From TrEMBL:
This is AraC-like DNA-binding protein. Residues 231-330 form the HTH araC/xylS-type domain. One of its GO terms (molecular function) is DNA-binding transcription factor activity. It comes from the Bacteria. It holds the Pfam family AraC_binding_2. Keywords: DNA-binding, Transcription, Transcription regulation. SUPFAM superfamilies: Homeodomain-like. It comes from Pigmentiphaga litoralis.
Length: 330
């Protein structure tokens, strides 16, 4: 059975974590809401009991939740994060957009942030659940593609843990959840956790089918034979991010006409050159806001080539899933 061994979890991310146990449905609903998200809980059998514990790996939150009775949880949409449900015992059913997906120790569930769903947990069902921030996923996907997504990531819900890629995910999770030290345990743990987080996100984007999978495959295939003019153009804009450059400037450096450059760039990168430039400038602005050097959002936006604060904020939120103000307040 493709399950996650409790001893590994006890020795890793959940080590020293407090276990909340309750026979009161209202009390447990409160704890689960604080850990995951607001939801409606419908208890469908007698003898309610539940337990919950939680931990973290980088910006990802992890929890182990068990219900001893039959319950239905209806959170609607998650909005801010993607949820991966990995069963240790029992079965559950996810109802989504008129479909039903049966989850078991052999079938994990990948719930996208924008998909309305509800879940029916059978008696004595125990999940390990991983919350990945939506902004992290979309930022990584944008980086792989080389341009803004222009839409929300939508994953296939079922992840078959018996397949080679499913087994790879299982082993990755056993390593991440079993080996990751608690955040307070050592000074280098943020670095360790960061690498684990990147590995989990990369696996999902590459191996779990979603609405940008084909675009990622094309981007990977096209990168093998990218024309030198595209590479030269990318180098030029990276070297002149803070300068007022034009398409003509870039095309001249790349050694081709503007029309040839635009066509080649869109064909091999899937977006316009100026869209790529805007994305790099947004990344630069975000890094500066995260340093907390006291500069205002307007000043940072202007330095990175955004003359309209409102449009900058809209583009920023679309790319990173949060406003410049929220980044500045971290």
């Amino acid at each position: 059975m493709a399950t996650f061994a409790p001893p590994l979890l006890d020795a890793g991310v959940f080590k020293n974590s407090e276990v909340v146990r309750s026979k009161d449905a209202h009390e447990m609903h409160h704890h689960v809401t604080n850990t995951l998200s607001a939801h409606h809980l419908d208890v469908r059998s007698v003898g309610f009991r539940a337990s919950l514990r939680q931990g973290s790996v980088g910006s990802m939150r992890v929890c182990e939740l068990e219900y001893g009775s039959i319950v239905q949880a209806d959170p609607g949409r998650l909005d801010d994060y993607l949820l991966i449900q990995m069963l240790q015992a029992g079965q559950s059913r996810v109802y989504h957009e008129g479909n039903e997906t049966l989850l078991s120790c052999d079938m994990a569930g990948v719930i996208a942030p924008t998909i309305p769903f509800r879940a029916l947990w059978e008696r004595d069902c125990r999940h390990v659940m991983l919350k990945i921030p939506r902004s992290k996923l979309e930022q990584a996907c944008s980086s792989y593609l080389g341009h803004d997504l222009g839409g929300s990531l939508q994953f296939r819900i079922g992840m078959d843990l018996r397949t080679p890629t499913g087994q790879a995910w299982k082993h990755l999770m056993e390593y991440v959840l079993g080996s990751a030290p608690p955040a307070e345990s050592c000074a280098i743990s943020p670095i360790i956790h960061g690498h684990m987080e990147e590995a989990a996100i990369a696996h999902l984007l590459i191996h779990q089918s979603h609405n940008f999978s084909e675009a990622l495959k094309r981007a990977n295939d096209s990168s093998i034979n990218v024309p030198s003019c595209v590479r030269r153009a990318e180098q030029y804009i990276e070297d002149h991010l803070l300068d007022a450059i034009t398409l003509t400037d870039v095309a001249e450096y790349a050694g081709v006409s503007v029309s040839t450059l635009c066509h080649s760039f869109r064909r091999h990168r899937g977006s316009s050159l100026m869209c790529a430039l805007r994305g790099l400038r947004l990344e630069g602005a975000r890094k500066e806001l995260l340093t907390g050097n006291g500069r205002s959002i307007v000043d940072v936006a202007y330095e990175w080539g955004f003359n309209h604060a409102g449009r900058f904020s809209i583009s920023y939120r679309k790319r990173f899933g949060e406003s410049p103000t929220q980044t500045l307040q971290r």
